[in-house]
Amino acid sequence: MSSAARPPATGLGRCRSTREVDGPPLREGLWPDSRLSAIITHKSSHLAIFHSLLLPLLAASTGDVPVTFDRDVRPILSDKCFECHGPDTNKRKAKLRLDREEGLFSLRDGRPVVAPGSSATSELYARITHSDLDSRMPPAEFRHSLNEFEIDTIRTWIDQGAVYEGHWAWSKPMRPDVPAVADASWIRNPIDAFVLARLEAEGLSPSPVADARTLARRLTVDLTGLPANADQVEAFERGGLVEALLASPHYGERMAQHWLDLVRYADTVGYHGDQEWRMWPYRDHVIHSFNANQPFDEFTIEQIAGDLIHESTNEQQVAASYNRLNMITFEGGSQAKEFLLKYASDRVRNLSTIWLGATMNCAECHEHKFDPYSMEDFYRLSAFFADIKEEGVYTRFQEGSVPPERRVVGPEQETRLAELTATIASLQAELERDDPGIATEQASWEARIAKQRKKNKAMDAPWIDDEQSNGGTDEGAWNFVTAAAGAPVRSGERSRRQTGSGTVQHFFHGAERRIVLGTGDKLFAWVHLDQENPPEQVMLQFHVNGTWEHRAVWGKDKISFGGIGTDTNAHRQKGVLPPTGVWVRLEVDPSEVGLSAEHPVDGIAFTQFGGLAHWDVAGLHTVVPSLAFGSTTSPTREAVFTPAEARTDDQSALLRMHFRTIAPSLASVRASIAEATAAHAAYEESLPLMLATVAVEPREVRVLPRGNWMDDSGEVVQPGVPSFLFDGDVGEGERADRLDLAGWLVSDANPLAARAFVNRIWKLLFGEGLARDPNDLGNQGARPTHPELLDWLAVEFIESGWDVKALLRTIVSSNTYRQSSDTRPDLVERDPYNEFLARQTRWRHDAEFVRDGALAVSGLLAPTIGGPSVKPYQPAGHWRELNFPMRTWKQGEGDQLYRRSLYTFWCRTFLHPAMDAFDAPNRENACAKRNRSNTPQQALVLLNDPGFVEAARALAEAPARLAPHQADEEGIGWIWSRALARKAGAEELSVALALLQEERIRFGADPEATRALLAVGMRPLPDDLTSTELAAWTQVSRLVLNLHETVTRN
Hints:
The chain is an alpha+beta fold. Among the domains are: 15-27 and 944-1049, no CATH class; 69-159, no CATH class; 327-406 and 689-750, no CATH class; 458-622, Jelly Rolls (Sandwich), CATH 2.60.120.260. The strands form 6 sheets. Strands 4, 6, 7, 10, 14 and 16 form a 6-stranded antiparallel beta sheet that branches. Strands 5-8-15-11-12-13 form a 6-stranded mixed beta sheet, with no helix packed on it. A two-stranded antiparallel sheet has the order 1-2. It is globular and about 110 Å long.
C-alpha cells in the first residue's frame, strides 16, 4: 500500500498484514475462531447433541455401540415432545408424561408406551411413525417434527431393551474409573486419560504441546488476565510459573471478573434512573476470597447467608451483600409490592444459574416445560430470601445511599479500631478503679445532696446559656448576640437572636448531657419578645427517645407541629403570648407534655412563628441540681436518696459508678475518655459504607398464578428446595432459612453445584464448558462432551475440600490444556467445534483483558488491588441520557486512569463504550458465557480510544530514546518483546521499519498532526524526546497493540 493510499489519520492501514500468530494463517478475519463464534452462540447445544448422537448411532445400527437414553434419546424427546408431554401440568396433553420413567413405561389403552425390546408393540414408536398425519406425533402443525435419524434412534433404543437412565446432571456425581488408553506416554494426569480415550475411540490424536512462550502467555492470561512478559516465559521453562500465578494478587482479580459477571455486580441500581450505589467492597471481598483460596463451599455459605452465621465476621457480612446485588428502582409511582416480587424472582434466577446450572425463570409463571422445576419450587426458593430487609421502591436517594447499609472494616481498620477500643477500655478502667480519695469525695457529695433535700428549696440548673455544651447535633440558625452590641441578655454575656417569617427555630438533640427529671422539677427557658415585631406564637419542644412529641405553646395557634387546634402532649396550649419588651420565663411542668423521670430529655427546640425574639438561659428548676444532668437515672436518684446503711449492694455499686461520671477530680480522665470515644466514632464514620443484608421477620410468600403480582389467590409456601432434587426439609427449625439453603447447595444432596462450578472453570480454560451451555445443565442444555471427565472433576473438587486453586492446578497441568491451538485439516473436517478436545482453543480476550494488556505492556498499569470504582477515559456525552438525577462522567486522575478494568465504574444502562464494544455484559442478569463478536467498532476502539493511544505513546518512549536511525531494529524488537514476549519476524520487522520511516517524514512535515497525536491522554510528555520521534514510534506501538495476536488468547 502506498503512502497516499494509507488512511491519513493513523497511517496504520496495513497493520494487519503482518504475521500475527505462530502456525497457519487465520482465514476467518480479525479474531481467531470468530468465524465460528456466532454459530456457537446460537447452535452449539443442538450441534453438540447432533455430534454426540451421530457417531455412536451410526455404529449402533450395526450393533457395535448401544443407544443410551440419557445421551441419545432424552435430547430428542426434550426438543420434540416435552412441550406437550413434559413437566408442565397445565400444558400436558393426554395426561402423558415422557420426561419420567413411569410415564414412558405406562400403558395407554392396554398398550405400553414403550415395550422394552419391541418397537413394534410400543405406542410411542407407533405414533411417531403413524401413516395418518392427523394421528402422527408430534402433530403436523408443531414446529418440531421428527426426522428419520431421530425416529431410528428411538426405535433402536427400544429394540435394544429400552434401558432407562436418569438425567446425567440430577444424580450425585460419582468418581468414574480412569479409562485405559493405548498411548499412556501422553498422560500427565487423569484428565488426559479421559480425553485421550475419546480421541482414540474416534481415531484421532491429540495436538502437539504448544511452545513455552505460547503456554506462558496462555497461563498468564487464563490465571491473571494479564499478558506474559519475558520473565514469565523463563519461569515457565523453569517450572515455577503456575504456582507463581496462583499466588499472584492478580489471580484473585481474574477470578473475580468471572464471578462478578455471574452475580450481576455493578455500581448502579439498574432500573429507571440507574442511580449509583455503594457496592464496591463486595467486589474487593471476592478478590480477597479467591486470593486466599477460600473453599468454595464456605464461600457459597457466606455469599448467601454470611449475615446469619453466629457472631459473623465483617468479611462474612460483606459476602452476604451478594443478596443485595439485584437491580432495584427509585422510580416514583412504581408499586412496592410488584418490585419486591421482582427482586425475589431475580434472586431465584441468579441462584439457580450459579449453583444449579438451571433456567428456573420459566417456573415463575408456569411449570417448567422441559425440566422438573415446578412453580412451587420457584416460590419456595424465593421464600428463603423473604427475610431480607429492603424497600420495594427506594425514595431516599442521596449520595448512593441504599439502606440498610453497614461500615466496611478491613484488617487494617480492625487493628486501628482495636487500638482505639483498648485506649477507651484503659481509661475506663482508670475511671472505675478503687480510690480512697474518690470515696471521700463521694461521701461529701452525698452529704450535700441530703442537705439540699432537707432544705427542700428548688433552684435553677442551667442546661444552655452562653453556649450549647451538652453534645449532640445543633440545627437551625444559632445567632448568638451580646449585650455590648445592644442586644437584650438575661444571663451571662450572650443571648440568641431569632427572626423570620413563618415557623423558625434553632435546636439541638442527641445530647450526651441529658436532663434527668425528678419529682417536682420544672423545665424553663427565658425569652424576650420584640415590642415592634413580636412573634405570633412561641413554642418549646423537648426531644425524647428520638421524637419531638412533647411541646408547649403560647399565643395564637400558628405552628403546625403536633396539630393546630389540638391540646395534647404533642401540642399543649399554655395560654396567651407573653408580654413584649421584657424577659419572660416560660415554665413547663414535665407531666403536662407527657414527660417523666423514666425519659431523659436530650434536646430542646426554641420555636416561634414570625417576628423577632431573643432566647437565653434554659434548663431545669429542681431541688437537687447536682442530679439534674448527665447519666442520672431514676434508679440512681432512688439510690442516692436512700441512706447508706439501707442501700442494697446493687444500689451502692450504681451510685459509685454514677459519682465517677461527675467527680471533679476525675474530670481529666472523663475528658480523655470523651476524646478517645470521639476519635473512635470519627474513625468508624470514615470507613466506607456499603449495602448490607439484614434479616428481619420474613414476608409471606405465595405462588403467583401466571406470575401476576396482583393475584394473591395462590397457595402460601414455606422455604424449600426443588422437590425432585431433594424431597425433604433442608432445615431443622420450624422454618428453613438462607443458612439452611446455602448448606444444602454444597451438600451431597445437591448434585449440581460442583458440576456447574467445574464446568464454568473448564470454560475459562478452554473457551467452552464440557457442557456447552453453562447456564443450563437441564434437558435443553447440551450434554457434556466428556460426561465422565466432568464427574471426575466434580468429585475431585469436592474431595479436595472445594479447593479452587487445586482444581485449576490440575487442569492447567494436563497435556489436554497444554496442546497447541493450531487447527489441523483432519480436525476441521471431523471436529470443527473442538468437542473432542484434540487441540486447545483460540479466542479474543475479554473486554477487560484487552485494555489491561495494553496498560500492562506500556508500563502504565497501576497494580493497586481494590478500592472504590474508578472512571478512566470515556467519550464526552455518553451519559447525556442518564437522568434522575442527571449525571456527568467525572474522569479520574493519576493512577485512577490506569487501574485494571475490573475497577472501572460499571453503569448497567450506559456501560463504558469500550467495554461494550468488546462484549462485556451489562450485568442486568447472570452471565456465565459472554458473547464474542467481531465488529469494526472493536478495531476503532483499539486505534482511537484515548487509553489505547496513550498506552501506545508510553510504550514508544523507551525505543524513542535510542539513537535515531541507528537502533531502530533494536527498538522494534523491544516493543515486540514487551507486547508479545517474542522477537519480531523478518517480515514484521520490515513492515515496522517502513512504517517508522514513513511516519517520521509525515510528522516532521505536519507539526499539527504531531501535536494532536501526542496530546491524547493525561500522561505528561517526556522532556528528553522530540515530538516527531515520539509520534513516529507511537504509531509503531499502535500497530503492535492492534495485532490480533496481542488481543488473542492462543
